[in-house]
Amino acid sequence: MNGDTLPIGELARRTGLTVKTVRLYSDRGVITPAERTPAGYRRYAPDAVARLSFVRTLRELGLGLDTIRRILDRELPLEEVAARHAAALDVQIGVLRLRRAVLTNVAARTPTTPEEIRRMHQLARLTTAERRRLVDEFLDSVFADLDEGPVPSAIRRSMTPELPDDPTQAQADAWVGLAELSLDPDFRDAVRRLAEEHARRASSPPLPDVVALAHIHVGAALAAGIDPGSPEADPAVAALAAHSARTLARPDDHELHRLLLHHLERADDPRRDRYFELLAVINDWPPPVPHTPVIHWSVAALRARAA
Which of 2, 156, 225, 246 is most buried, most CB within 10 Å of its CB? Predict the structure, then answer.
């Protein structure tokens, strides 16, 4: 018997594994005894220590014993296995980030109903294809029956989230928030109304984008901190009304102001800003300019003058 060989207990001690684990690896062909004693006990060559240490590392990375044996026997290139495993881990990391986002949202809510927890749990476990179906179903409900054309198609593209396979934690958090918004029937109705407004603006005669005009004409007054009900706000309101009157080819009168107020009040939904903020995070776009502050200022200014 070779005195350089190691009994199974000593091999286990040197590698930090249990005797049971070493025996399992030996039975599966990952390591092979160099010899057996007359009593049938296994003894291993000294290089089994390094081999088992490598096996332990690969096991901690999640590789199966059959794959490890083939790597050690040079049946599989290690770099190929590592690349495949790294890709699989990327997917798992993405899933874990989504689950962390769900748990963070649950922890931030007091109280949280069982129904909310169930829904958020489902959101966290959606596959890529299921996430796509959720988004498509939401956008289909928004754009259903609208005429096909460049305007509705462009709006739909601008509202479509594309969550990467390996999202950052911020993207995972944003996805959960956006998915919750898309499941809100009231929000769907509000976005549907917004899409209809855009479709009407593309019709003949065109309607003005009142929110866009408000950004142009009242943005500076808002930034300057001017009270919308004060005389200092008059030039901004007058410019907004005049531009709208030119676009509509109608008088700049009380009825026009009433129409502007109606459109701005319909557009006043902070959830829309929230949707596009989350969308920008998911798609790695620049942060959008929020509409809500300009809308609130314009509505207050028009109401003050109507009174």
Answer: 156
